[in-house]
């Protein structure tokens, strides 16, 4: 079965993504971009990171496209 290999690669990928996120987070303020919605009224706080979601979605789509392209060849 290929499941153990998939789990190992997934774990390594998650560690790599975490490290990159930690390093890039110092320079790129993900979660505090223009377009992120933040509402604070008294004790009520609402936060929805619209721009951050769009950027993360685009990056994940690009990664998926590249992986599929390499798997096809």
UniProtKB/TrEMBL annotation:
Coiled coil: none annotated. The chain crosses the membrane at residues 6-25, 46-71. Keywords: Membrane, Transmembrane, Transmembrane helix. Pfam families: DUF2905. InterPro entries: DUF2905. This is DUF2905 domain-containing protein.
């Amino acid at each position: 079965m290929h499941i153990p290999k998939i789990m190992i690669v997934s774990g390594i990928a998650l560690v790599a993504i975490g490290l990159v996120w930690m390093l890039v987070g110092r320079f790129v303020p993900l979660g505090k971009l223009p377009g992120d919605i933040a509402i604070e009224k008294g004790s009520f706080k609402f936060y929805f990171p619209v721009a951050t979601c769009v950027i993360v979605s685009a990056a994940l789509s690009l990664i998926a496209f590249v992986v599929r392209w390499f798997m096809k060849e």
